[in-house]
Design brief:
The structure holds two protein chains of two kinds.
Chain A (H helix, E strand, L loop, with lengths): L1 E4 L6 H10 L4 E4 L2 H6 L2 E4 L5 H8 L2 H10 L4 E4 L1 H4 L4 E2 L5 E2 L6 E5 L8 E7 L15 E7 L1 E5 L5 E6 L3 E8 L2 E4 L7 H15 L4
Parallel strand pairs in A: 1-2, 1-3, 3-4, 4-13, 5-7
Antiparallel strand pairs in A: 5-6, 7-10, 8-9, 11-12, 12-13
Chain B lengths: L4 E9 L2 E6 L2 E7 L1 H10 L5 E5 L7 H12 L6 E4 L5 H9 L4 E4 L1 H5 L2 H10 L4 E9 L7 E5 L4 E6 H11 L3 E6 L11 H8 L6 E4 L5 H9 L5 E4 L1 H4 L5 H10 L7
Parallel strand pairs in B: 1-4, 1-12, 4-5, 5-6, 6-7, 7-10, 10-11, 11-12
Antiparallel strand pairs in B: 1-2, 2-3, 7-8, 8-9
Helix pairs in contact in B: 1-2
Chain lengths: 202, 254
């Protein structure tokens, strides 16, 4: 069973709907016991970074501990950004620090937010893109991005006038800046891969 | 490269999708749950749901309907109509929306944009502007509120610029003069606004032909085009629209 962290932030329902649609056993919860018993954790989010971190509160430490112990973790959008060290969206805020790097504003020569469908070329060795051999469009909606500084992290990029990290994998910690739950068939395939990772099929 | 978006819009009244001309003479266009699912599968880039019910009624009905539509929509889903508070935004996001669009409430209380952006991020906050051409001045447009029924003295371009500063992450720009006419978007309006802000602008109102969509992107500077009449009633499919845009060298998600 996959637990989608219910921390009163953003589009948790969309993530549930998507897992339900692909026939995956997923539960929305904020109970530490349920989270501990899960095969994998999804940290969703449509929120400003600071608000999301505050809303996550004590669950942050638990999620970090479980991820360090090897439980698969998927962060989506601001949930992805929270995997990093810190962000400067509306003030400076600390993240979970599971992947080295900071969350910084998209350079202002681009239209901000980066909003819409952009191409991601899946690297062969990233589990989330297993079976997706061609480049695909995914849906992005964000004004800040993760400037990844972690040498152990594998990164898939999209082009937004610069190489913008679209997805990152570091051991059992996964993240997508795009919204897989809202990226049509390609996005559902990414979520299916995460479900397989949790079931140790990948 | 970021693609240009084709976004069907469901104007919803009494649980049915409707479409009128210049905001009047509404015609039934089907069931929102069914249409939403169909557009999601047909390759639409996003879906917009606007509650245009004229009378004030329970928010609960709308929230329930949004949840039902969201169950089968795996593309971004924006909901608008009658939203006045951050709590209402939260409720809609929890029901399956990714973004919300605000209009009248933001005009009356611009701080709503800042509050919403601070809590949900500006990518979540769409400012809807219903614009009407000024009768006194050329190349000027005035903001209309309350489902287009009330014209204000606010200049559309000024309001768009201010809204961006306050925290709006996108502008849904509807030309009331062009809406439902199928005579083409008001690209002078689209250009005036898209040239003044650095957030995406969705052109809305007036699409009748495939060329109109191309014009809104190329001549209006729009990042996305809203469609209703031309797709609801079967004139064009999303696929036909995208194939056409691609044939004219516009990057689309196909």
């Amino acid at each position: 069973m996959i637990v989608i962290i219910d921390y009163n932030v953003g589009n948790v329902k969309s993530v549930c709907n998507a897992f339900e649609h692909i026939g995956c056993d997923a539960e929305l919860s904020c109970s530490p016991e349920v989270i501990k018993s899960a095969d994998g954790i999804v940290l969703p989010g449509v929120a400003a970074f600071g608000y999301a971190v505050n809303a996550l509160g004590n669950l942050a430490e638990l999620i970090k501990k479980l991820a360090l112990e090897g439980k698969p973790l998927l962060g989506i959008c601001v949930g992805f950004q929270m995997l990093f060290d810190k962000s400067c969206e509306y003030g400076e805020h600390s993240g979970l620090g599971l992947i080295s790097g900071n969350v910084v504003p998209i350079p202002s020569e681009q239209i901000i937010p980066h909003m819409g469908w952009n191409l991601v070329k899946p690297p062969k060795d990233m589990d989330l893109f297993n079976g997706l051999d061609k480049e695909k469009h995914f849906y992005f909606a964000h004004s800040f991005y993760a400037d990844v500084a972690d040498e152990q992290a594998k990164i898939a990029y999209t082009d937004y006038g610069f190489d913008l990290p679209a997805s990152v994998q570091k051991a059992n910690v996964y993240g997508t800046q795009f919204h897989p739950e809202k990226s049509g068939e390609a996005g559902l395939a990414v979520l299916k891969n995460f479900a397989k990772i949790c079931e140790k099929e990948i | 490269m970021l693609t240009k978006r084709v976004i069907p819009c469901l104007d919803v009244k009494d649980n049915r999708v409707v479409k009128g001309v210049n905001f009047l003479n509404l015609r039934d266009a089907g069931d929102p749950v069914e249409l939403g699912a169909r557009y999601s599968q047909a390759g639409a880039d996003e879906l917009v749901f606007l509650d245009i019910t004229a009378t004030i009624r329970s928010r609960k009905t709308i929230v329930e309907l949004v949840s039902e539509v969201a169950k089968n929509v795996f593309i971004p889903f924006t909901v608008g109509g009658g939203i006045r508070t951050v709590e209402q935004i939260d409720e809609l996001l929890r029901s399956g929306a990714e973004k919300v669009s605000v209009n009248t409430a933001a005009v009356e209380n611009p701080d709503l944009l800042s509050q919403a952006a601070k809590r949900f991020g500006n990518q979540c906050v769409v400012l809807a502007i219903d614009a009407r051409r000024s009768k006194e001045q050329t190349e000027k447009w005035q903001v209309c509120v309350k489902a287009g029924s009330q014209m204000t003295d606010i200049d559309v371009v000024d309001w768009a610029v201010q809204a961006e500063k306050l925290g709006a992450g996108e502008i849904l720009l509807t030309s009331m003069d062009a809406d439902g006419t199928k005579a083409g978007y008001d690209n002078e309006l689209n250009k005036a606004v898209s040239g003044a802000v650095n957030i995406p602008v969705i052109a809305s109102g007036g699409a009748g032909t495939l060329e109109h969509l191309y014009d809104a992107i190329i001549n209006g500077g729009a990042d996305a085009v809203l469609v209703a009449s031309i797709t609801h009633f079967g004139n064009y499919t999303i696929k036909q629209i995208k194939e056409y845009l691609a044939s004219r060298n516009i990057a689309v998600n196909m």
